[in-house]
Amino acid sequence: MRRLLVLVGIAATLGFSVPAQADPGVDASFLDALTKAGITFNNGSNAVNAGKTACGLMDQGQPELDVIQNVTAQNPGITTTSAAKFTAIAASAYCPQHLQRASDNSGSPSPPPGDGVGVSGGQQ
Questions:
Q1: CA distance linking residue 2 with residue 24, whole number of Å
Q2: What is d(CA 35, CA 113) in angstroms, rounded to the nearest whole number?
Q3: Is the pLDDT of residue 78 over 80?
Q4: Are 37 and 25 a contacting pair, CB within 8 Å?
């Protein structure tokens, strides 16, 4: 659990590189940030939807650690480190209000929710 908190902290720092403004270029910036972080995907549209879904889960009150576990569970080829990076980059792009929550997630993780995040691919 401590290792996950460290990974989330690192990933949150990486996530600041994506602009948070709400304009049509946000999706392209999000995909570019994923590529620069070494996170591969088969379909950009699916990756964008997965990022927005991750933010939706956090908007519903899911702790970021649970969202990271959900990304990992929905994408067996992605590492926990890549899932943490993905979640932080998604938060930076689509829901920056959740970036500071990473240090507040000290509770025990809950099981992943029913709807998955669906990132196509993972770090290779």
A1: 37
A2: 27
A3: yes
A4: no
Which residue carries 């576990």 as its tokens? 69
Spatial neighbors of 24 by CB under 8 A, at least 6 apart, are: none
The model's pTM: 0.65
Greater confidence (3 vs 56) lies with: 56
pLDDT tens digits along 92-109: 999 999 886 544 544 434
**Looking at residue 72, what is its pLDDT?**
92
Residue 17, token pair as written in the block: 């590189």
Q: DSSP assignment of 21-37, as one string?
A: --STHHHHHHHHHHHHT
Residues in the chain: 124
Q: Which residue carries 């890549």 as its tokens? A: 82
Confidence at residue 110, expressed as pLDDT on a 0 to 100 scale: 40
Domain residue extents for the chain: 2-17+24-102
Q: Where are the alpha helices (DSSP H) in the chain?
A: 2-15, 25-36, 44-59, 64-74, 80-94
